[in-house]
Amino acid sequence: MSAVATIMTKNPKSVGPTTSVVSAAKTMKSARVGSLFVKKGKQLVGIVTDTDIVRRAVSSGKPLGRLTVEKIMTAPIRTIDAGKTVDDAQDMMGDYSIRHLGVTKDGEIVGVVSVRDLLLFYKRYAQSKLPPNMGYEEPKIGQD
Q1: By the 8 A CB rule, do 17 and 68 touch?
Q2: Separation of CA 128 from chain center
Q3: Closest CA to 101 of 76, 119, 69
Q4: Which homologous superfamily does the CATH classification assign to the domain defined by 4-129?
Q5: pTM, whole model, 2 decimals?
Q6: What is the H or E stretch that residue 21 is in?
Q7: DSSP code of residue 136
Q8: Nearest to 26 by CA among 50, 62, 58, 44
Q9: Cα 21–22–27 angle (5° rounding)?
Q10: Which of 27, 70, 80, 90 is deepest in the core (most CB within 10 A)?
């Protein structure tokens, strides 16, 4: 089984703890990511995800322009060693009901792996096991 390091996103994006939720959401959108690490000085102190924004910020009814990521972030960051398997990452995400894991090497976070990364990995893995001409075909909608 492949190591987490082969599917992780390297050099994950981060924001400061006083970054507004609106600004963090815009950063996620432009970077096309679902999470940002929260960095205070040189230390990563948490992670803010698209789910955190919806469940802890938008649904609270508080003014999003003044609400900061440190108020809604998840801490501590759940991590997995880069050498662990993709199956190990899937198990951790399931056990903790989370969709993002920090990936560590020698105790330092070097990447992030998401549920989307797992889905793409397992899709490619399954397709590689199919006999020729047995791959996924687009449905023919409106044709009989």
Answers
A1: yes
A2: 25
A3: 76
A4: CBS-domain (3.10.580.10)
A5: 0.84
A6: helix 21-31
A7: -
A8: 50
A9: 95
A10: 80
- Residue 9 near residue 108 (C-beta atoms within 8 A): no
**Residue ranges of the domains in the chain?**
4-129
Tell me 62's DSSP state.
-
* Pair 4, 89: CB distance under 8 Å: yes
Q: Residue 81: enclosing H or E segment and its boundaries? A: strand 79-81
Residue among 5, 101, 114, 97 at smallest CA distance from 47: 101
**Is the separation of the CB atoms in 24 and 48 below 8 Å?**
yes
Instruction: Please give the Cα distance from 52 to 119 (Å, whole number).
Output: 21
- The separation between the first and the last C-alpha atoms of the chain, rounded to the nearest angstrom, is 41
pLDDT given at position 64:
85
Other Cβ atoms less than 10 A from the Cβ of 74: the count is: 17
